[in-house]
Amino acid sequence: MTSRRLVIALLALLGASGTQAATIELTVNGLVCGFCAQGIEKTLRRNAATDDVFVSLENRLVAVATKPDADIADDVLRKALQDAGYDVKAIARTNRSLQSLREQMKAKK
Amino acid sequence: MLSKFRRVAQATASIVACAMAVAAQAKPIAFAHGTTVMGEYGAGTMTEVQAFYAPTFRYSLGVSHLTLDGASERKTRDVTYFRANYLPKRWNLENAQANVFVWGGAGRAHIGETSEDQFAWNVGGQFDYETRRIYASLRTDLHEASGYSHRVDTLQLGIAPYEHDYQTLAVWIVLQARQYTGGLFPGTEYAALLRVFKRNAWLEAGATQDGKLQAMLMFNF
Lengths: 109, 221
What we know:
Helix content of chain B: under 10%
Low-confidence stretches of chain A: 10-19
Number of strands of chain B: 12
Helix content of chain A: 40-55%
Largest sheet of chain B: 12 strands, antiparallel, barrel
Shape of chain B: globular
Number of strands of chain A: 4
CATH class of chain A: Alpha Beta
Largest sheet of chain A: 4 strands, antiparallel
Distance between the termini of chain B: 56 Å
Order of helices and strands of chain B: HEEEEEEEEEEEE
Structural class of chain B: mainly beta
CATH architecture of chain A: 2-Layer Sandwich
CATH topology of chain A: Alpha-Beta Plaits
Oligomer: heterodimer
Mean pLDDT of chain A: 83
Shape of chain A: globular
Radius of gyration of chain B: 18 Å
């Protein structure tokens, strides 16, 4: 009985460690200056599900890493960006981490 | 022949300048829930300090203090306004942004030559267009009281030597033309400015054609 409980606990632990934080990538129009990016970052960081935010003016990209098991609905993201004064053209959910995005963008330059 | 060529060149330059008359001046609304503090020193003719809070990206409210110093030493106006700024139109393009801002304010003015305090009001507007390489803005500001009427029109055209990103320093070379009405400054005042900004800080400094300092500082948080 005890060993069965131990196996279940181990499986639960493995399952928990396998939970990945997701990345939401938004293509945004009107991103031309650092102040634009600052406003967007500030807005998105206010969302409880946000773990990190990365903005690339060059790629018209706003990437949001969500906390494990958390998500932000597309309409919430669109509204947040609209309220910040920008237009979202596309939303994609990817497995790329913000760190890898930062490195990719840096390598492109 | 040479003078005719010069006139044609001047006319062409004016048309090009007007056609590009959209550009990167500091914006009176930075972003929703953002506070903007800015100070401008305009070659001894104009000094302005402003602080605004924007509840949304559409409008901001705040205070400003403006000092206008005319060619005559006693021709000074010290004006304190409560101001509202509104963004009626923004165009978010793929690699560019354009905005129309309007504003209005009311407050008190101290008039140097009569030592009187009067009710004063202000209205103004700005159109700007920017990419990461080109910036243009045209701004007009009308300051009125029973004892004076001044309009300050400013055109800025900027070019960036490289395309900055959020994490890098933005550098702009900006040419400015400013005209004051109401006897504050004769003719048009020209200035060449170097503008740098990163994250929430903006610094702009340069000189007018008379070698006078023109500078601006802005912080958003």
